[in-house]
Amino acid sequence: MMENVQKVYEFLEKAGTFFLATVEGDQPRVRPYGAMLYFEDKIYIMAFGKTNTTRQIAQNSKAEICAFKGQTLRIECNLVEDNRPEVQKALVEKMPVLKPVLGENGENGVMYYLKNAKADFFKMMDLVETVTF
Q1: What gap in Å lies between CA 3 and CA 129, rounded to an integer?
Q2: Exposed, middle or buried by CB within 10 Å (0-12, 13-18, 19+), for 22?
Q3: Which pTM was predicted?
Q4: Which of 21, 53, 90, 121 could bridge to 64 as Cys pair (CB 3.0-4.6 Å)?
C-alpha cells in the first residue's frame, strides 16, 4: 500500500502541476495546483485559507485530481483537513518559495491529505494500472 502512495506522489512530483476538481452545488470547479507534500506515508495538497476551494471541500470532501506527464493520472479521493503545525511547516520547508504567502510555518494554508484514494494511470486511452491507498 505504501509503495502505491509513493508511486502516485512521484508521478505528481514529476508532472509538477496537477488539476484539482471540487464541487460547488451541482457545478464542478477545476483549478491548477502544485503545492504537495509526502508526509507520514500520505499525500498532502495545500489550498490557501478561506477560498472557494476550502469552502467547497468543507461542504463535500469528494475530489478528483488529474495530472499528465507522458501518461495521465486521475485520482478519485476524499480530502481530509490536517492543519497540524508539523504538516504545514514540512510544506514550507519543502517549498520555501511559498513562505512569503503562507507564513513562516505555513499557517496561512490549509493542508489536506488524500483518503480513500483510487488512482488510475492511463497511456493514451488504455488503462495501464489502478492502485488504491
Answers
A1: 14
A2: buried
A3: 0.90
A4: 21
**Residue in the block written with cell 451541482:** 26
What's the rounded Cα separation, in Å, for the pair 44 and 89? Answer: 12
Three-class SS state of 24: strand
**126-132 vs 62-68, strand pairing mode:** unpaired
Q: How far is CA 45 from CA 23, 97, 122, 124, in A?
A: 17, 16, 22, 26
pLDDT digits (tens, 9 = 90+) for 72-114: 999 999 999 998 999 998 999 999 998 888 877 777 889 999 9
Q: Where are the alpha helices (DSSP H) in the chain?
A: 2-15, 52-59, 85-94, 99-102
Domain with residues 2-132, CATH architecture: Roll (2.30)
Instruction: For 43-68, write each residue's pLDDT tens digit.
Output: 999 998 888 999 999 999 999 999 99
The answer to whether 111 and 81 have CB atoms below 8 angstroms apart is yes
Instruction: Say what the pLDDT of residue 100 is.
Output: 85
Supply the DSSP symbol for 20: E
Distance between CA atoms of 14 and 82, rounded to whole angstroms? 24
